Amino acid sequence: MDLVEEHRSVEELVRLFVRQAKDWAEANAERIGIAYESAGGWELWLEVELYVWLRQRVPSLAVSRQSHGYAEGAQRADLLLGDRVVVELKAETREETARAFADRVEKDRAKVDRVDEKQLDIDWSYEEGDAASEESDASDGSGGGATPAVIVAFAVSTAGTRAVSGLGDFVTMPAGTLTILWELTG
């Protein structure tokens, strides 16, 4: 498989994940509202729910939770898609400000910069001119070689959506009572 095909494959995998996350959010709007109102946040519940949803709805997709994918052994990816795309999830909580939510998303951006290619045993690089990769190359200065990762933020409030959108480079997708914002990196 050449690099252009590989890029399309990764992008298609991420888009499949985001569509499934949207379907899950729309099907679980009432439950999300209850979880959002609970103390302590709902991110771990979201991770488990999406894992189960994907296993049931897309059984051909290899998906795992809390997989190693970072240089630092203690760090784990929330989800790993197809044994090669790291997914980091963030869920806005009722108890935090929109800025605090965006700051947590920004911390995950820094975390995915430390993805360890050797842990995942893949070779990934962008070539100049690949669609949707030039911004990533310009933003991290690496020019390629990174493991693909996606940051997916679930914003319940309009302020949370605006705060994460203000970080730049996020694709926004309404999903029932919330907004999913995602950014493919690597």
What does this structure look like?
- This protein has one domain.
- The protein has seven helices and six strands.
- Helix 1 packs across helix 3.
- With 186 residues, the chain is of the alpha+beta class.
- The model is unreliable at 116-145 (pLDDT under 50).
- It has a six-stranded mixed beta sheet with strand order 1-2-3-4-6-5, sandwiched between helices.
Order of helices and strands: HHHEEEHHHEHEE
Strand order of the largest sheet: 1-2-3-4-6-5
Structural class: alpha+beta
Number of helices: 7
Ends apart, CA distance between termini: 18 Å
User: How many strands, which pairing sense, and closed or not: the largest β-sheet?
Assistant: 6 strands, mixed
Radius of gyration: 16 Å
Query: What number of domains?
Result: 1
Q: How many beta-strand runs?
A: 6
Shape: globular
- Percent in helix: 40-55%
Strand content: 15-25%
Compute the average pLDDT: 80
* Low-pLDDT ranges: 116-145
SSE layout and pairings?
Layout: H1 3-27, H2 29-37, H3 43-57, E1 63-68, E2 76-81, E3 85-91, H4 98-112, H5 117-120, H6 134-140, E4 149-155, H7 158-165, E5 171-175, E6 178-185
Parallel strand pairs: 3-4
Antiparallel strand pairs: 1-2, 2-3, 4-6, 5-6
Which features would summarize this protein structure in a list?
186 residues, 6 strands, six-stranded mixed sheet, globular, alpha+beta
